[in-house]
């Protein structure tokens, strides 16, 4: 897909992977619609895109509130137009064991990424169906492939993103709308600063994979749209382990558990 003058909506666009993704689409000539909660950071990213010759419009919104999503969607359609590409990056959550996780924690982690992605996609998909054209990208983490100990609600929410993507692919199979799942291993992002103690719970097997930057993930997302790919796993070495997991799930799950967090 040629991205020039396309309207691309990116959630979680105020920092980290979302901001890098917005900038990457801006460099490709797309008009980027930026969604996230913090207005000042959104404006900063939008101005950076514009300063580099792109076009961008920021819309502060709490993506965990369905009514707020519906309202901002109406504003976007009136002021910018209908997005052709929807990229669901927004997400939150920390690595906690089941007994450490409150019911509110579990619901908060499911609200973003999953419910936010569902609400945003559902809001804009009627236009994609009317045109029989478009692309939806959902980002998730390696926890959606083989969950590790001490991350129950986080991993569940990332599996929900995987399930949502595969269900959406089935739902839209008779259309020309492409749905992509991007799965990334460890990324150096503000997530770790906002969730102290989580990084220490990554299985030590994760050290086999090179650390990704937000820009690495952003480039993979853009490439998936340009090339109309359905599944992207990064880095390359992670693809090998994911393939082995499909063929021999028990040994990989044993290894992830053996090298992961353990109760004292």
TrEMBL record:
Gene Ontology CC annotations of this record: membrane
Keyword set, alphabetical order: Oxidoreductase
SMART domains xrefs: PKS_KR
Pfam families: adh_short
Residue ranges occupied by any Ketoreductase domain in the UniProt entry: 6-195
Single GO molecular function: oxidoreductase activity
Similarity-based family: Belongs to the short-chain dehydrogenases/reductases (SDR) family.
Protein name: Ketoreductase domain-containing protein
